Structure formats: C-alpha cells, structure tokens
## 1
Amino acid sequence: MSDDMPAGRELDALVAERVMLWSGVGNRPDRMSTYLGGDGWSGNRLDQGEVLSDIPYYSTAVGAAWLLVEGLDEDWCCSLQEHPAEYNEWACTFAHRRDALSVSGSANTAALAICRAALKAVGPTGSHVRPPA
C-alpha cells in the first residue's frame, strides 16, 4: 500500500497518525481546511470537533520528513541514498537496532522515500515513537 501512495496530504495525514501517533487525524484530509504556512508547514483545522493541529508536509518537504527519521531513531537506524541521476530515485532504509529487520521505500524524492519506509517500519497499526526534542 505505502509503495503506491503518492505524495500529498492524504499520505501526510497517514504518516502523522501511524508514525508520529497524532490523534484526531483520522486519515481524512478531505475534511481539512488548509491555510498557507512557511517552510513546508501548513495549519490545518480538522472538522472533527474542535481539534486543531499542524500537520507537516512529510511527503513533500524533506525537512518535515526528517522528523520521522528523528522520531524513529531510538529503535531504527536510517540510510538514505540518491541513485544516479538517470534513475531519478531515492531509497530509504530503516534497519532495526535490536532485531535483524530492515524495511525500505523508494520514490523520486527523498521525502516520499522516507515516508514510505517509515510506514513500513511501524506497520499497519503504528507503534510508539519518541517525539523529537
């Protein structure tokens, strides 16, 4: 599923919910009204009660995607590689620090590759992630 998902607000919401464990996201970007922010961030009002949150553009801004790497850092080691220009592709691999487990994702941007790999690392239900300091 995550290997086919395109960059965009739906993926950003899914990553916020499963990787960063944001509550109230509900993977419903169709119910978010967005206003412009700076530096790859956006303010979003979720039309589910009075929930107000700021969901980073994880899948399109590499600085925001790097928050996922920092959040997973306690249990996962990240490797990010750019393949030669003719392939126009990035690969991200998370290797578990204590188990012989690694997952990877690839895409035409580093941010999207990080998102795809991070979703694989936490699995379909998500796992506890230490928020970055």
## 2
Amino acid sequence: MWRNGYTDAERIRLDQPGYTAKEVTVTPLGLLVLAVWITAGIVLIVLGLKWFKGGTNWMLRSLAMLVALVGAAYLTMLVVAIAWGREPWNAMLVLLVVAIVIAAFIFWVSVLADCLLNEPSDGMGKLVWVLAIVLTFVVGAAIYHFGRRPRRLLEPSK
C-alpha cells in the first residue's frame, strides 16, 4: 500500500495517460445511507436469531438462520467495501440471489418431506404429489403447501 492509500495496481493505472484519480466526497446524505445499511444488517442478524429461538419446526429455524447469516455476510461485505474504497453492489446482488435460491431449496425440501411423511398412502395421490413437487421444484411445492396441505390437515386422520 502506498502512502497516499493506493495499491500497486492502482498506482500503475494512475501513471497511465488519460487516467485520473476519483475524488471521494463524504456528504450528510451519504452518511445517512451508510447508517441505514449498517442498521439493516444488524436488524437482519437480530431478527434471524430471534426467529431461530422461536422457531417451531426445522424449516422455520433453517430460514431464520439463513436470515441471520445473510445479515452477517451483508455487514461483512459492507465493511470490506468501505475499507477497500469499493462499491459493494455486485457482491450484494450475488448474496441476495444465493439467499433466495437457498431459501427456495429449504422450502422445497421441507414440503417434500412433509408430503412423504404425512400424505396418506391410499391410491396414487401420494405418488402424484411427490412427482409434482420433485419435477416442478418450488412451483409444485408451493401448490402443495398452500393448496393440498391445508385440506389434508382438515381431513380426519384414519
């Protein structure tokens, strides 16, 4: 690291013709946005841990832990980006996409397990639901979870 805060690679680029260093100005709005970002990360961690403690089944506890981990990763990326003087947008977008995919997978596995363990085995109904959930991923899982599961819970057990 050079005395003025530039790394060797940045110093080489600064020596090239036509390349100029960018000035960074701190504004009150920028500080407010930074405070909101930091608060959002802390809120994600606290809510995730609170939901984890109050979770009644493994799906809710897994999703709560995912929220807490996303909050921790979010704060870490924010700190690293500030320390390196970079914008964290790309990393935050990747984090968001990965978190959504993991949450969808947790939901899918929990609905599939619920269907396999609790759906009555009479006729072809269980096989059809399992195939629908497996072959259509989140769409079939959502249809089962919000459509079939409530009706199954209302049926008298045999």
## 3
Amino acid sequence: MAIWRRNAKLDGLVHHSDRDSQYTSIRYSERLDDAGIAPSVGSVGDSYDNAMAETTIGLYKTELIYRKGPWRTPEQVELATLEWIDWWNNSRLHEAIDYVPPAEKEAMYYSENMSEKSKNLSEKTLETVGSKSL
C-alpha cells in the first residue's frame, strides 16, 4: 500500500524485518528490489529486532481489539482494522513529530526536501490528507 500511495520508486528506503519465511521468500525479495527498497533482516535472538512493530501491535490490540470487542465475525475485525490503520497513518497526532499526523509530516518533508517530481507527489499526498479531513 505504501508503494501504491506514493506512486514512485522508493530508492534508498530500507525495509527491516525479522527472519520469518514470508520476509525471506524469493518473491518478497524481488518485490522489494522492484520498488528500489533494500532488505534488512535482523540477527537471530536480537531482542530489539521487532520492538517497534510489537509496540504498534500492542497499541492496536489495546485501542481497538480489546476495547471495541467482542467481535462477531472476522469481517468486522477486518473493517475495523482498516479504519484503525487509516486513522494511525492519516489522523493520529504524534508527539515526536510536533503533533502532526504522520502522512502530513511525510508530505511536508517531501515538500521541503525533494526534487520537483517529489514536490508534485507530496502535493498529491497533501490533497489526499486534506480531502480526508473534510
């Protein structure tokens, strides 16, 4: 989804993951390469390997799964999860980035730091973020 949203190659981006089979498969590695993303796999037994992902999953469970349940169908969970992810990426105010939603901060970064092509992309992202606010 991140690649689709940006509609651009992501040269220089590093995707860090653990050693689970889906992250070490040939097809997955090829997809990263096609997008210009460098794979990075943590060392075995590294306790910090998935700390950020596990923290996010913990917040997801606490804020959505436990608070809004019980769930009657998997479809209810899927729809609620999509809504939560949209909120997490596009509306959540994040203290570490001056209480700005992550998508807006990313658009600001591209606007201030990238080439004309990237500026056009960030304006498109800002328009998307702005239209969701209405």
## 4
Amino acid sequence: MNKDSKNLFDKKITLEHIDDTAAQKVKEMLEVSFCELLCKYKDYDTSPACEELSSIRNKINTSDYYFIKYDKTIVGAIRIISKGESCRVSPVFILPKYRNKGYARQAMLISEKMYPDIFKWELDTIKQEEYLVKLYKELGYTVTGREYDIKPGMTIIFMEKNITAESL
C-alpha cells in the first residue's frame, strides 16, 4: 500500500492519512455531512451523524482513514478497511459545500491506486439514494443482490468492484 497520493491525478485532490488526534474533526464532519440523510431517514442508531467519538477513534486506529483535500482544504474523508485480499470503503463523504465537484469520485479512484495489490472493492449504500447508487455504478461497482432494510423506506444495498492490474 502506498499512503502517499501525490501526483496520481491532475486534479488537486489528495488523501491525507490521519490518526486518532483527528477524531473530533471527523466527528464534526460526519455530523454535518450526514445531517440531511439523518433528517430524512431518522436512522439514529445507524447514521454516521450519530457516531460516538470513541467509535470514530477505534475506526481510525483499526483502518486507514484519510482526509480528502482539494489543494490544502479538507473537503471530506474516506475510510478504507483492508480485508486481506479486498478492501471496503466505509464511509466516503464530502462536506455539503464541496459536493457535486467530483471529489468523492476522485478520492475513490486515488484509493484504488494506493492499494495496487487489491482487486476487489466493497461498499454499501442506501438504495433509495439514487445519486449515490449512480455514482458507484459509474465507478464500476455492481449491486451484489445482498440487501437489508434498516427501516421501512430505507434499504442498504451492497456493491462490489473487481479491478484488474491493467486498469490501475
């Protein structure tokens, strides 16, 4: 794994590996970034907006968590969980004022380059949020068929992407 993402793409998007001293900042970012979905679905037990600081610290310490930066500005974050021969993205998010600029897409592509020995990527998302499903499909993810209901009107679907060494 190469944790230095400089010079991988023309855009000024980079990923900066963080440690648990950034947990409070991540918590604040999660609250802002997932507030709209929390208000819509009222999924207080599962929303990243409600995640406890201790849980965030644990996730930072047991996986690779990165700030997504445009130039030198933090615009979001992405967490990569290595599962041996595969990686799981959970979560990836962009702060509301920086959305719709391609930053999440770029961060996901950079992540794949940073883990050149990983050929299977996994994630889950809310089925009803069509813009999220569309983004992941455009990045090459396919729906696995596995899904579960968090509550009526909120279904989590699982997606995966298989890549080849040539596509990196």
